Structures are given as C-alpha cells and as structure tokens.
Here is the input.
Amino acid sequence: MADSKSGYELGEVVIAEDAIEKRVAELGSEITTDYRDSAPLLVGVLKGAMIFMSDLIRELDFPLEIDMMAISSYGSSTSTSGVVRILKDLDTDLTGRHVLIVEDIVDSGLTLSYLTRNLLSRNPASLEVCALIVKDGKSRHIDMIKYIGFHIPPSFVVGYGLDIGERFRNLRQIYNYSGVTEH
Here is the structure.
C-alpha cells in the first residue's frame, strides 16, 4: 500500500482491525478482573499508546484515573538510539497508588526497563505493564509485562498509534513498514 503524498510504502497487514478490537476487549476483561477494587492509575506512554489506551479504558469497568508520559528512544528513526529521555513527566503522585503502564510496543525493552525503574522509585503500591505488541526475539524484559496483546516478528510496524516520522498513527490496522518509495 503506497501513500503517494508521503512517498512511504506500507507492507502487508500484520494485525487486522477486527483482531485488535477483539484483543483489546479481552485485555479489558482481564484487567477489570484484576483491578476491580483498586482504582488504578493508568499511565499511557505518548504518543504511540494513546489510541490503544483510549480503546482500552472504554473496556474497563471500574473507577480509574489516567496520566500520560512522553519518553523517547527512537527519535524519527526506525531503530532505537539506545538513549532514553523523558520528554513529558507525570502530573500525578504515584505514592501508594496501583499503577498500570499502557505501552504500544515493546521492542528491545530498553525504554520499558528505564520507565519501570523510574516509576518504581516513586513508591507505587503496585506497578504492572500492559503492552499492545511485543516483538518476539528482541525484548530482554518480557517478564515485566503482565498483559500482552500480540506477539509479532521483529519488524518495523505502523498504524493504530504506531508511526514513522509521525505518519500512519491513524490507520485502523497494523502494517509492516516497507520504506520509502522512489519518486
């Protein structure tokens, strides 16, 4: 699938819209069971997790609060820089709170490892992770993820919040990213 205006080429669908909808509903049910009496704080990791988190919170059947963080280890590249930076911190005090991190994708696990260490230092009552996607064979920190939507092969993907250079977040499916077409 080519985006003629941008020159980007999308590959095959990796996760279809109906599969995403079904799995988000299942995750919502699991999380509702686990957090029904906890009134957790859901921490979304911007910008990629915002669409997933929006759909997920509508599936949760308990009182909750949300906050957002922006963290970067990619910049505009398709591979991690190895340096994690907090671009926007939380507005909420985590002390004594049950916290659920909502991530779009876990690649190497570097960003997630940094984030969990950082948030644990703020003394939450509990800290768990929900990731829409985990790349197989690349993540060294998969054991810290309690809720996983999908496992995919290690390729660069876009859609449903995931981007390349801020493009394609609005797609309803997740596609392999094939690169830039010749003009």
Summary: The first strand starts at residue 2 and ends at 3. The chain is about 20% helix and 35% strand.
